[in-house]
Structure to design on (416 residues):
């Protein structure tokens, strides 16, 4: 059963039933799902969780009520990989990669979509929709296809061709908007009122959608033997993932399921779209919108909805926020692949490059454990690397030609 008891305004704390609501009727603040953690304590245990499926739904007690079964393609329960070879290059002692590249549609968005569409089905919606920087569209279209729902996904027109193909293959309606993600988001906010039976995963279902990100915290804790990691670095788009990772660790602590302090959270942004990093550095409480210009398109949200809440979480325990160039992003996609065998999309390059930056700055403690969220698969942004990741040699089909280009001792280059 779910211990969710309703929705609560993040600003004025007014409460609402678990219905199709997303803004507070009193102060227009965003709503968040609330749980009866006192009732869950002692009922939700390490054993009850371990008895569940190898997906996010092993934590169904701490997720929104699904009514009947969840809308489920198998999101979550992704590997937490110890990354000693990358750690050695970065000069840190204990590094783990939370490898969300292996989700059903290749990104962390499967977690949030599975939760959002489960709630959408319970609430009587009939069409799945979203405003997306690419990965969300793919995940919404896939989960909708799996339950026979139509989908309408709206994306900026300049996305990577691989992301457009991945969104379109599931047969839904994909609309490309000649504008930025922030233009797409504005348009979708207008469409919400025109189409009351459409579940926009990240708009009118946002309170439910966001809960899916908590499962990253739940899995990391469980995979570390219910010990919290000292430090977690998270890529930022709207900022929802980071704030809900923080919420997830808090809920586990309240339930008495973890040992160790709440992790220090760190953000990762591309310099070409770093409104949160800029606000953090300036000591501001609000985020000034920017116009994105970066290869990390999945993170290219110039006006992040959860920006102020991210600033609070970063400052709560002495975190920081990285801001890295497109060159560093590409370099670190390669570094991660060469050292650990994990091929990440541009967002993963942002996370690893920011990790390196914050270690060098002294914000991240190199002697304490670190978890880095690798949120999307490299096949999603092949366009970004096709010019640099190329064949080593091209030869005629003869042994002599092969020998002439091969040195007798092949050396794997890891550092750069
Ligand atoms: C959406 C996304 C994120 C972060 O999303 P938030 O809006 O901050 O929750 C991170 N990585 C990838 C690959 C994404 O698609
Ligand atoms: Zn309110």
């Amino acid at each position: 059963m779910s211990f969710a008891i309703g929705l609560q305004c993040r600003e004025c704390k007014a409460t609402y039933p678990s219905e199709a609501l997303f803004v507070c009727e009193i102060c227009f603040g965003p709503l968040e799902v609330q749980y009866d953690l006192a009732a869950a304590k002692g009922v939700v245990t390490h054993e009850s969780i371990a008895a569940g499926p190898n997906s996010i739904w092993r934590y169904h007690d701490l997720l929104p009520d699904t009514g009947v079964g969840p809308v489920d393609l198998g999101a979550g329960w992704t590997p937490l990989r110890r990354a000693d070879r990358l750690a050695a290059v970065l000069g840190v002692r204990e590094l783990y990669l939370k490898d969300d590249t292996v989700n059903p549609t290749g990104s962390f968005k499967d977690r949030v979509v599975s939760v959002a569409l489960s709630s959408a089905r319970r609430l009587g919606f009939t069409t799945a929709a979203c405003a997306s920087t690419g990965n969300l569209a793919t995940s919404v279209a896939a989960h909708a296809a799996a339950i026979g729902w139509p989908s309408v996904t709206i994306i900026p027109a300049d996305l990577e061709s691989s992301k457009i193909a991945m969104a379109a293959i599931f047969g839904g309606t994909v609309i490309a908007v000649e504008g930025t993600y922030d233009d797409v988001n504005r348009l979708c906010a207008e469409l919400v009122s025109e189409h009351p039976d459409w579940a926009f995963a990240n708009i009118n279902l946002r309170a439910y959608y966001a809960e899916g990100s908590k499962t990253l915290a739940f899995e990391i804790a469980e995979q570390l033997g219910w010990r919290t990691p000292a430090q977690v670095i998270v890529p930022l788009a709207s900022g929802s993932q980071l704030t809900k990772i923080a919420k997830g660790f808090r809920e586990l602590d309240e339930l008495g399921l973890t040992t160790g302090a709440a992790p220090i959270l760190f953000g990762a942004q591309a310099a070409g779209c770093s409104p949160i990093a800029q606000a953090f550095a300036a000591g501001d409480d609000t985020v000034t919108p920017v116009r994105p210009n970066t290869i990390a398109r999945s993170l290219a949200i110039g006006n992040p909805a959860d920006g102020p809440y991210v600033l609070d979480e970063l400052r709560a325990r002495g975190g920081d926020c990285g801001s890295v160039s497109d060159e560093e992003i590409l370099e670190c996609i390669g570094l991660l692949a060469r050292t650990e065998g994990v091929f990440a999309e541009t967002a993963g390059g942002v996370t690893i490059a920011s990790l390196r930056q914050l270690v060098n700055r002294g914000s991240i403690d190199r002697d304490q454990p670190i978890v880095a969220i690798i949120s999307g698969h490299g096949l999603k942004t092949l366009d970004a690397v096709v010019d640099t990741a190329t064949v080593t040699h091209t030869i005629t089909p003869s042994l002599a030609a092969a020998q002439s280009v091969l040195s007798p001792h092949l050396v794997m280059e890891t550092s750069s």
The first strand starts at residue 4 and ends at 9.
